[in-house]
Design a protein that fits this description.
Layout (H helix, E strand, L loop, with lengths): L3 H14 L12 H8 L3 H13 L3 E4 L3 E4 L6 E4 L2 H8 L4 H4 L4 H6 L6 E11 L2 H7 L6 E11 L8 E7 H4 L16 H7 L5 E11 L3 H7 L7 E10 L4 E10 L3 E4 L8
Parallel strand pairs: 3-10
Antiparallel strand pairs: 1-2, 4-5, 5-6, 6-9, 7-8, 8-9
Length: 262
């Protein structure tokens, strides 16, 4: 038999899903809800806590509880890498029209706020092994954050690693002020004669760290999807290693596999 707070949560949840309460609407006060349902304020608070953990409502300090606005969905499909490669040799005007985030979300370039930070550091064991270079080799660590201007949290947390000497022939590739780069990483590599041959992606899911939960504005109980992406060139070298942390509440992974006919 459902507990009293679960019954209250069910009723409020139904009102949200049936659009009787719309995104941004403020719920009645806890005292008003307690009176409406004939229950105690602590029982109502338990119901609201449950809805908050489900990501249906937000509690704003000093203002009350509000129906959570659904965030822009990002659909990441396995055709995005070929799409990026097809554009790598295109004129800058074409490359500048749109990027990977726009591809995944359907947003326009001027809808987005972009952040990039570069830092050089020495390769630790794991990354040295991934790139097949000696420990201590200079790598370029690139941190990216892209968000919808109407929202506060980025779509994901991206950290990309490149071997510095592999790209140093083009000094612009070492300069964060050149971001956002029209055509993305594949075009950047193309400028130093590197053609990406294949991309390997490994996905795992786990609870977020406190820092990730805050940065991605995750509802309580929401997992993150961690993507480790390794790009190989036509000579079989690893040319890029990226770690992408994706919020589980707004990311859809879409894989389409074409099968050979008998």
């Amino acid at each position: 038999m459902p507990k009293a707070y679960e019954e209250i949560a069910d009723d409020i949840r139904r009102s949200i899903r049936e659009r009787l309460r719309k995104p941004g609407d403020r719920l009645p006060s806890e005292a008003a809800l307690a009176e409406h349902y004939g229950r105690s304020v602590p029982t109502v608070q338990n119901a609201l806590r449950l809805l908050s953990e489900e990501g249906l409502i937000d509690k704003q300090h000093g203002r009350g509880n509000f129906v959570r606005r659904p965030r822009t969905l990002a659909v990441r499909d396995n055709g995005r890498h070929q799409w990026e490669k097809n554009r790598a040799r295109a004129p800058e005007a074409i490359r500048a029209e749109t990027g990977a985030t726009e591809h995944d979300t359907g947003l326009r370039l001027d809808d987005l706020v972009f952040y990039a930070k570069y830092r050089e550091f020495e390769a630790p064991d794991e990354l040295a092994d991934a790139f097949g270079v000696p420990v201590g080799t200079t790598l370029l660590k690139r941190t990216y954050r892209t968000r919808y201007a109407a929202e506060t949290a980025p779509f994901n947390l991206v950290t990309s690693y490149l071997v510095r000497d592999m790209i140093a022939a083009n000094p612009d590739l070492l300069d964060e002020t050149k971001e956002p780069w029209p055509g993305g990483t594949q075009h950047q590599l193309y400028t130093v004669g590197i053609e990406v041959d294949r991309v390997e992606e490994r996905f795992t899911a786990r609870p977020p760290t406190p820092e990730e939960a805050k940065a991605l504005d995750l509802p309580a109980g929401t997992s993150v999807i961690v993507l480790r992406k390794t790009s190989y060139d036509i000579e079989g070298r690893v040319v890029d290693v990226s770690v992408v942390t994706l919020p589980g509440d707004r990311t859809e992974l879409l894989f389409t596999t074409s099968l050979e006919r008998w």
